[in-house]
């Protein structure tokens, strides 16, 4: 009730603040168009308007309806996008052209894209398939491009123009409430500022009930029998009401500032800062861990990310250079984790901080006409990133009041990771119906970490150099049909997490391997776009992705644990990363069918995604096994009706997936995956939105209308049960 009261108060203040007459109908800057980087590729986008109308919980949540994308959640305050069956280190995340991936990005699902504030975004683009030539290292399965909102600069206006904006949101199933205050300022004809601050608080998440495993080995304990349920090691732990999930809930304070100076039509300078500070976020699969006492819990006391950016955009007139951007960035990621074990009177604390310094340059030329039916354009770029790590750990014995600092933290303190690369790509228009693309990226990565004999930590002094290339054809064989053929490579050098980390992962305790080599991927894909009668569009893609040297977890005995690491021996399972000796393969198909009747304002979208992965067994090179956590066959149907550009909009969404029982050997000990696999589901949401632009907008979503108990494959939490979500926005 307090949250509802706060939101109501914010809305009333905003409405009172709106003047009787608005002199400017520009509410704020809207989403940008798709960048040239995604053309000719399997890609999809989500706009700011879609994000607002669907009342999405996070940046990863905004991608749920995309083909080829699945969102896994290890915790309520974490989410990781799977793109074509891979995630974590194997998917590149970019925010305004700056890499979010750094030297301690963890293997498998991680929470880092969750730290992008969805309210600061204008557009999200997802490029599916290997993409290291254009985007850089780590883009084995694809790249996610987040573009922030821009301040409003109207060259027809002069003087001081202000557009305040207030946003409130509420979610019933986790009592998720919060507000954002924002100012969009224009100073003169060339200077704009957009800044905002947001606070959000989410409580324990209520599901529709327990999700029963496919296997009958572990019983599905009914909610009416809480005593028995406590004796069954199920993740998440469901409270006695049969719906509330223990180890969920979090708080967030985020902020952003963006100052843009349009010095001329040819020069634009941007100075920006973004911050995310998340508090008290339990990791659900470790709160408690399987077979652990019910009061054991691993909590992220702080999850912080800060980004500073200075960018110069140049668009020279009368020059062969069409545009170029040079950006200087600094980024800090900080984690403070507490593993509290009251029964053993022990608290383990971990503090990790990484500072990343980046310099990037990218641009393109104008088209050069070489022959009557041949024109070419060149895309090019270079980047340099340097990471510096600080890491420490301590153990407190609460019964005697003694705290002991461990010889090392999760990572090696003072470790460094450097990446350098340069790339170019030629695009050639041959005749009027054929476009050819080809290019390559040369890259280098260096990892440095000192040895520590007391903890058995070996010195890391690794240098990796390589090349990634791509080639593609785009042919408009008929007015209604365009075909695409692409061959793209991805490369990912081992980072400091692979080479030096000791941590509790989903399947068990994972420790370092300083002898790892890089992972490589090659994606072969065939795509087709059919556009008919101005109402129908079909995008279809089939792909094969080959992984060479894919890092996989190999089980180890307790005797292999490194010294001074009691968590390793005490863990239920132990693993070490190794490069697979043989090739891994992911095959898949993605379909997106859009049907649009503009006269009556109806848009219907249907998507299908199929992925199948297989690789060598981690224990027997002669046996091939399923790859871990590849999403099952699934899709979505979304219908939207908006009879006028402004006013009422109604919509409904169906998300569904079939059973996933193709499990990797490591999945058997992963508490996030139910015995025998994850059962399929079908979830229906309905929504309504009303925009009184430029004054007020309201979005309401009734999620999980049928109150279906479900879980996305690989997640630690069950999806929300039936409940309302609302978002209200006011400004002028």
Structure write-up:
Helix content is 6%, strand content 52%. The chain has 732 residues and is mainly beta. The strands form 4 sheets. It has a 22-stranded antiparallel barrel. β14 and β15 form a beta hairpin. The radius of gyration is 25 Å and the shape is globular. The two termini are 28 Å apart. The relative contact order is 0.14. Mean pLDDT is 90; it is low at 1-33.
| Coarse structural class | mainly beta
Largest sheet properties = 22 strands, antiparallel, barrel
Could you tell me the radius of gyration in angstroms?
25 Å
Helix content: under 10%
Give the amount of beta strand, in percent.
Answer: over 45%
Gap between N and C termini, in Å?
A: 28 Å
* Poorly predicted sequence stretches spanning 5 or more consecutive residues: 1-33
Principal-axis shape equals globular
Number of helices: 6
DSSP E strands, number: 36
Global mean pLDDT: 90
Features:
single chain, 6 helices, 22-stranded antiparallel barrel, 5-stranded mixed beta sheet, disordered N terminus, mainly beta, 732 residues
């Amino acid at each position: 009730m307090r949250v509802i009261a706060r939101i109501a108060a914010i809305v009333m203040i905003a409405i009172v603040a709106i003047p009787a007459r608005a002199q400017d109908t520009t509410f704020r800057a809207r989403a940008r168009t798709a960048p040239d980087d995604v053309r000719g590729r399997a890609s999809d986008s989500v706009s700011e308007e879609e994000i607002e109308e669907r009342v999405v919980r996070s940046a990863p949540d905004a991608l749920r309806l995309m083909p080829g994308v699945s969102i896994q959640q290890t915790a309520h305050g974490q989410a990781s996008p799977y793109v074509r069956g891979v995630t974590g280190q194997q998917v590149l995340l970019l925010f305004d052209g700056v890499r979010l991936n750094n030297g301690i990005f963890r293997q498998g699902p991680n929470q880092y894209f969750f730290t992008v504030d969805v309210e600061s975004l204008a557009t999200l683009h997802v490029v599916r398939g290997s993409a290291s030539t254009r985007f850089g290292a780590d883009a084995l399965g694809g790249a996610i491009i987040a573009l922030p909102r821009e301040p409003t600069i109207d060259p027809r206006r002069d003087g001081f123009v202000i557009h305040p904006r207030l946003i409130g949101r509420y979610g019933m199933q986790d009592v998720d409430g919060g507000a954002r205050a924002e100012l969009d300022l224009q100073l003169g004809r060339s200077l704009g500022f957009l800044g905002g601050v947001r606070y959000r608080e989410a409580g324990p998440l209520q599901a529709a009930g327990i999700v029963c495993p496919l296997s009958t080995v572990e019983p599905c304990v009914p909610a009416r029998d809480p005593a028995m349920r406590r004796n069954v090691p199920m993740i998440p732990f469901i409270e006695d009401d049969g719906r509330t999930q223990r180890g969920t809930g979090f708080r967030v304070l985020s902020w952003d500032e963006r100052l843009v100076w349009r010095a001329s039509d040819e020069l634009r300078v941007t100075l920006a800062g973004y911050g995310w500070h998340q508090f008290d976020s339990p990791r659900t699969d470790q709160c408690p861990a399987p077979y652990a006492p019910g009061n054991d819990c691993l909590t992220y006391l702080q999850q912080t990310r800060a980004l500073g950016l200075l960018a110069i955009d140049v668009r020279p007139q009368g020059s062969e250079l069409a545009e170029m951007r040079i950006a200087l960035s600094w980024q800090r990621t900080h984690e403070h984790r507490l593993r509290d074990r009251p029964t053993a009177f022990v608290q383990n604390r971990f503090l990790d901080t990484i500072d990343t310094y980046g310099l990037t340059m990218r641009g393109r030329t104008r088209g050069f006409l070489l022959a009557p039916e041949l024109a070419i354009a060149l895309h090019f770029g270079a980047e340099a990133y340097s990471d510096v790590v600080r890491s420490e750990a301590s153990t407190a014995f609460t019964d005697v009041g003694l705290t002991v600092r461990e010889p090392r933290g999760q990572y090696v303190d003072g470790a460094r990771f450097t990446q350098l690369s340069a790339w170019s790509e030629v695009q050639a228009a041959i005749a009027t119906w054929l476009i050819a693309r080809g290019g390559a990226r040369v890259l280098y990565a260096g990892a440095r970490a000192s040895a520590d004999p007391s903890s058995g930590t070996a010195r890391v002094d690794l240098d990796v150099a390589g090349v990634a290339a791509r080639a593609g054809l785009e042919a408009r064989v008929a007015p209604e049909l365009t075909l695409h053929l692409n061959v793209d490579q991805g490369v990912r050098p081992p980072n400091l997490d692979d080479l030096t980390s000791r941590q509790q992962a989903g399947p068990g305790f994972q420790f370092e391997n300083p002898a790892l080599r890089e992972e490589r991927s090659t994606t072969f894909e065939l795509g087709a776009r059919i556009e008919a009668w101005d109402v129908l569009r079909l995008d279809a893609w089939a792909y094969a992705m080959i992984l060479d040297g894919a890092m996989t977890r190999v089980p180890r005995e307790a005797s292999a644990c490194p010294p001074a690491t009691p968590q390793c021996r005490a863990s239920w399972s132990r693993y070490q990363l190794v490069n697979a000796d043989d090739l891994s393969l992911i095959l898949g198909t993605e379909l997106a069918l859009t049907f649009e009747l503009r006269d009556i304002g109806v848009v219907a979208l249907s998507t299908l995604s199929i992925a199948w992965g297989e690789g060598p067994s981690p224990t027997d090179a002669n046996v091939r096994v399923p790859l871990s956590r590849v999403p099952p066959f699934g899709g979505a149907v979304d219908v939207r009706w908006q009879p006028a550009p402004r006013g009422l909009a109604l919509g409904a969404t169906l998300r569904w997936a079939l059973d996933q029982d193709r499990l990797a050997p490591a999945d058997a000990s992963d508490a996030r995956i139910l015995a025998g696999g994850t059962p399929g589901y079908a979830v229906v949401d309905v929504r309504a939105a009303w925009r009184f632009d430029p004054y007020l907008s309201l979005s309401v979503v009734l999620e999980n209308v049928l109150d279906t108990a479900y879980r996305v494959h690989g997640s630690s939490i069950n999806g929300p049960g039936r409940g309302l979500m609302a978002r209200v926005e006011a400004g002028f």
